[in-house]
Amino acid sequence: MFLSLVGLAHFYLWHRMVRSTTGPGRSRRALTWGLVGLVLLVVAAFAGSRVEWGHWLAWPGYLWVAVMFYLVVILVVLEIPRAVAALLLRRAASRSATPEPVPVLAGAGGPAEDEPVAPPAAEAAPMSRRLFLGRATAAVAGVGALGTVGYGVTTALGDPVTERVRVALPKLDPRLSGLRFAVVSDVHLGPLTGLRHTERIVRMINGLEADVVAIVGDLVDGPVAELGPLARPLKDLESRYGAYFVTGNHEYYVSGGPGEWIEELAELGVRSLRNERVEIRHQGAVLDLAGVNDVGGVDAGDPPDFDKALGGREAGRSTVLLAHQPIQVAEAARHGVDLQLSGHTHGGQLAPFNLVVGLQQPVVSGLATVDGVPVYVTRGAGFWGPPVRVGAPPEITMLELRA
User: Could you tell me which residues belong to the region Disordered (predicted)?
Assistant: First the structure.
């Protein structure tokens, strides 16, 4: 499916950026082969991200994916104005081509039959309407796409936004009111991130002085042997009651599954909640903090188990659930969860892709109530694929519980 979408996108770009802007000849052939090379670059970037030298291909490949995306979006939006402009130009051309009668005075003699008539002055052939519209449209799309991606790179590689959210829970013990969670997700340590990326996130979390740190999945995009050094700053996380982690779908893409990362995080002082819960004791009251595996663990034989994580709880005690994907709230509601913290969506990462994400997840970003359960979905602190964020800046959340 991925290869098909990439192929269709590049064919559309060839039609609008090459065929509509050039005539048959050397220029069209050169641009066509250049576009074929970009298709191969995209495939190599995704495949190369799993090998040691892949980051050399990842940067140009992923950046082109973002430029390609916005070229397609802008060109599709311009299809209607382009069609209207073509119609107007055709009408104007037809009017100018209609000869107007030239009045001749009676008795005025024209040139003699044997008198030579001077040919009209030579004029440069005007650019065809097709080429004019094609080049104008391509120029607008190119400038728009490059500008958008440039802005998106600056946003993605900059400091995450700190979102401060208060969530009122009807059953919350008043003594737990004011309990603060630092929520972070989708850090995506990988070939395009460096040590400073992790250090910055840890520094910002520590600055929030939270009671609990919740890492809601998709922390890594590679094995411990490759990315272990990038995760070491996590040992410096500070909070009153500890840092907790649940798996995301990307942890199951790592060769061998999430097991080695679970062990590595334990050595760094981050506890993984694998279909289990812990008690958070605060000011003489107790809150259940539960975590379930991501639905991506189903195919890996490590599925979410809500009965194991949430069964047998003490009646009347509030429960906060860490679950990577918002869609898991349907099962959480059946188990009487008071609040779910999730990530996964990136807030869409590349607007207007957020509209597509909304077809698959009940919440794209922010706080919403689904099946009677408040769900907070963080946009994530990192990025996946293109190092670009448009309309969805990276985020670290300070979430405070209120009675």
Answer: 100-119
